Structure formats: structure tokens, C-alpha cells
Amino acid sequence: MRVYISADMEGVAGVTAWEQVETIGGAEYARSQKLMTAEVNAAIRGAMEAGATSVTVNDAHGRMRNLLPEDLHLGAQLISGTPKKLGMMEGIDRGFTVACFIGYHARAGSPGVLAHTYSDVVHRLEVNGQEMGELGLNALLAGYFGVPVVLVSGDQVLASEARKMLEGVEAIIVKEAINYHAARSLPPRLAREKIRQGVARALSKKSYQPLAVPAKATVTIKFTDPARAAAAAILPRSQCPDAVTVTYTGADYLEAYQAARSLIALAKSS
Ligand SMILES: [Zn+2]
User: Fold this and answer.
1) How far away, in angstroms, is 62 Cα from ligand 1 center?
2) Domain ranges of the chain
3) What is the pLDDT of residues 216-242, one digit of tens each?
4) For the segment 172-222, what is each residue's pLDDT rounded down to a tens digit?
5) Where is the binding site for Zn(2+), in residues?
6) CATH match of 217-268 with 3.60.40.10
7) Cα separations in angstroms, 216 against 136, 181, 253
8) Of 2, 87, 105, 245, which is most buried with the most CB atoms under 10 A?
């Protein structure tokens, strides 16, 4: 049983502010690195207990150098650094049995803690008309490789996003969002215990169904302002139905996924 873990930071217990997840936060950021690493270690422990033969962890936040390699559980391998062609899902392949998303956050425009979709320049994102955030985009990419996402952890808004999209998913709520910048959080040690148990439980289920992925995918991104959309529209084969919206139709989901990330990167750099 090979287990893939994509690890973000905003959904970790105790985290409610950007300073806590950006290097500019200094000591606050360094503390979040420890909290994030500990939640990932709890997931690895749960996976090992359930019989995982290998665990791959992909650092999926910001510059993707947040997890502390020296503190990582010995049962896992770590992918870190950026850029990576598959970004938050680097390293995923058809050989994985299941995937888990740890420390994830809700999509842009939702009432979750630090809710966003890749960047604050994205107002709304859709795949084939269905609104989604990073959870949805990455779960579909796992589905593209035939890998089911069996567990997610984050706040309650992220959990309901996951339950709507992923049948039978274990959604571990480590904090209740009060608003964008405030939450009622579990003590981190308790959050880790829930994650460990949740992963072990999820992996012991007999059957998993990977997400069905459409053969052709159109991604539609509504940016916060026309200047961002104009910058994104530099990407060949993209289209602008209006001043703030850019669309891209990929030959398959993988192409649409990479196009979405490229559009956002272009918009961000403007
Ligand atoms: Zn993040």
C-alpha cells in the first residue's frame, strides 16, 4: 500500500493569519512549520499503522520548503522545493493506493480560515462549470492518476467542501472557522491524534473509488480585476469571455490543471 500525502499549511490547527504561514512572519512562521510537520507526522504514523509500505509527502505550501526534513517521520520520503510541474501534487502517479490532504484550506470566496484558491488574485474558479478550490483541483488530478483521496484535514468549511465532492472521505476538522482570520482550534496535540486515527481508519476501508475525471476539461477563472485577467490571457489558447474572466480548455484534465496554475502565475506576476 503506497500512500501519497499533499501537505498545505493554512488548514493546520492553531493557524489563522498570513504571518503564520509566510516567512515574513519570522518566529510565528517557524512555529507553524513545527505544527505542520507534526500533523504530517501524525498522518504518516496512521498510514504505517494501517499497513502502508511507503509514504510520499509533498510539501504543497507557498515556496514548498516548509516541512522540517530533520523532524519528518522515518517512514516517509519528502518532496520539497519549487517550481514543480505538478505543484501541490508533485510525485503523484498511478502506483499510489490512496492520497491524503493535510492542512488544506477552503476555496476562494468561502467562509473558511484564510480561504483562497492559489492566490488572492483569484476571485472564483470553476472546472466544467463546477466551482472548486485547491482541494477540488488536486483531488481531480489524483483521480486523473486513478488515485482516490481518502482523507482531508482542515477547518469545517474545507470539510464540507470535501464531503460534497469526495464520497466517503474522512474529513478531519482540526478547527472551526469563525471568519477569514479567526478560528476555534483544537489543541494541536489532539488534532494530531484525530489525524492519526483518521488516516488509519480511512486506509483500513476495503474499497476506494477514485474521482471520475472528465475527458475534456475547461477551467474558468474570474480574477479580482481586469489587469490580472489581461496578464493571464497571455497564455496561448486561453480566452476572455469578459474583462475579468479567462478560460482554457485542456485536451485532458492534466493540461487544464497545468493551464490553471499557469494562468494564476501570470496574473500574480502582473
Ligand atoms: Zn498554502
Assistant:
1) 6
2) 2-204, 217-268
3) 999 999 999 999 999 999 999 999 999
4) 999 999 999 999 999 999 999 999 999 999 999 878 889 999 999 999 999
5) 8, 10, 61, 105, 134
6) no
7) 16, 37, 6
8) 105
Residues at the binding site are 8, 10, 61, 105, 134
For ligand 1, the distance from its centroid to the CA atom of residue 15, given in whole angstroms, is: 11
Distance 204 CA to ligand 1 centre (A): 28
- Closest to 182 (Cα-Cα) out of 14, 39, 12: 14
One-letter amino acid at 89 equals: M
Task: Please indicate whether residue 123 is annotated as part of the active site.
Answer: no
* Chain centroid, CA 59 distance in Å: 10
Question: Out of 73, 116, 123, 181, which one is annotated catalytic?
Answer: 116
User: Quick check: 79 and 90 in contact, CB under 8 A?
Assistant: yes
Superfamily for domain range 2-204 = Dipeptide transport protein (3.40.50.10780)
